[in-house]
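Ticket #4471: complex job returned nothing on first submit. Input attached below:
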Amino acid sequence: MSVPVNVAAQPAQQKVATKKMNAFKKKIVIFSFLAPALLLYFVFMLYPMLDAVRYSLFDWNGASSSMNFVGLENYAALTQDSLFLRSLGHNLLWVVLSLVLMVLPTLVLAVLISKVRKGRMFFRAAFYLPSVLSLAVVGVLWSKIYDPTMGPINTFLRAIGMDFLARNWLGEPFLVIPALVIASTWAFYGLYMILFLAGLQSIDPQMYEAADIDGAGPIRKFWYITVPSLRNTMNVVVSMVIIHALKGFALIWIMTQGGPFYMSEVVSTYVYKSAFSMNQVSYAAAQSVVLGIIIITFTIAFNYYRERTE
Amino acid sequence: MANLAKKQISGQRALILSLSVLLLFMIAPIIYAVLASFKTNMEIFSSPFALPQTWSFDNIISAWHVGNFQQYFFNSAFVTIGGMALVALVACPAGYAFAQLSFRGNNLVFYLILLGMALPVQAIIIPIFYHLRGMGLVDTLTGLTLVSAGLALPFSIFLMRNTFRDVPKELRESAMIDGAGEWKTYWKIMLPLAKPGVVALLIFTFMNIWNDFLLPLVLLMSQQKYTISLGLYSFQGEMATNYALIFGERSLVWFLVLSSI
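Support reply: We reran it on our side without changes. The output follows.
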C-alpha cells in the first residue's frame, strides 16, 4: 500500500526541494549584487556614524588604551562652552549672509542672461567659470586678493588715495565672516545661476504675453510671474545654500583657520581643532554629532516640506 | 513698428553691456591670478592690474618643479581614478538591484543608504580616522581612495537606481528567458543601456574626489602623498611667511588649470 504513495510523493518532494533551492540561489545572486556596496557603506559610513555617537559618550584623548564612560557629560559641557556656542552662531550668520547674497542676486542674474538673444551661451559659460574651481583654489586665490600688503583690493584703494579704507580684510573681527562669505558666494553663484536658468526655461511664455497685454512692467512680471513659478527651484537652491553654509570647512580653513581670535570659527573647524590638534577626541565627537543631527534634521524636514508642497 | 524694433535692439545692447561689466567684475579674480602668474613679485606689488611686462612661461614652468606638483598630480590621479573605478564597480550593481530586482527589505535597505546622503562628512571624520589607523591605512593613498569611494556611495547608488529604473523591465525578463543568468544580463544588456547614467556618475565622482580637501587634510600626513588641493594649501602656507619666495601666484595658474579639468 505504501509503495505507490511514495512513488507519487517523490516528485512533489523534489519539486519543493528544488523550489527552495532556487529561492536560496536567487537570494545569493541578489546578495552578490548588493554585498560590495553594503560592505563599503557599512565600513565607511554606518559604523563610523555609530562610533561617533559611542566616542561622544566617553572620555578619550585618542591615544590612551582605556576609555572612561561619562554618559552625556560631553554634551552637557557643550552647552556651557562659549566657543562652541559662538561657532554655532557664526554658522547661523554664515547661513543668513549666504542666503541674502546668493538667492535673489543669482536669480536676477539668471533672468538677465535668459533675456539675451545672441550670445546667451557665452554669458552662461563665462558666469559659470568660477564654479568649476575647487574650493582650495578659491581659498588661496581670495587670500591673495584680501592680502593686506600685496592684495589688489588694498593696492587699488591706495592708488586712488583712499588709504583709510584699506584694511587687513581677513584680520579684523567684524570683517572676517563677511569677507569669507563673499569669497564663498563667488565660488557658488554660477551653480545657482545654472539651476535658476534651467527653471526659467520651464515657465510658460504665454504668462508673460498675458502680463504684457495687461500692461505689467518688468519688475511686476518678475515678482508676480517669475518668482512664484520658480518656487521649486527656489526651494532646492535655498536648501543647498543652507546645507553648504552649515558644512563649510575648506574655504574657512584655508583662509583663516577660524581666526582672528576665533571670530570666524564655525562648528566644523572647531571639531577639527578639538579632535586633531587638542586631542579632545570625545568632546569633538560630541560636537560632530550635534552638527550631524542639525544637518540631517534640516535635510529631512526640508524634503518632507517639499514633498508636501509639491 | 520700426520704433519698437529699435527700442528692443537698444534694450538688448544695454543688457549686454551691463552683463559684460558685471562679468568683468566676476571673473576679475581669475584674470588677476593668470596675469600674476606671468609677473615678477615686484610687478605684482607695484602694478597689480597692468599687463605683465614680458610674457614668459618660465615662472610657471619652474613653479611646476619647485611646487612638487608632478607628485601631487600623480597622487590626485591615483586616488581619483581608483575611487571612480571602485564607485562604478560597487554602486552600479547595487543601484541595479534596488531598481530591478525584487527582494524583501528593498526599500528599507535603500532608505538606510539614502540616509548617508544627508550625513555630513564632518560628523564621521573622527571615527573614520581612527578606524583607518587601526587598519594601518592612515597616510596611505589606498586608505584615502577607499574612504573617498565609501563616502561617495549613497549619492552614487541613488543616481544608478534612478538610471536603471528607466530601463524597461521587459528587457531583463526576455534576456532571462533566453537563458542568461542575472549577472550576465546585467553585464551584457542592462549596463550598456545605462551608459549615460554611468558617465554622469563618473564625472560627478571625478569632480568630488579630485577637488576634495577635508579628507586628504585629515587622512594624509606626509607631504609626498599630498593631493593637488592639499598641496596647494601647504604650498601657500610655506610661502606666506617668506615674501621673497612667493610662488603662490605663479603656481596658482597650475591649480586653476588642474583643478578645473
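Chain A touches chain B through 79 residues (CB under 8 Å). Closing as resolved unless it happens again.
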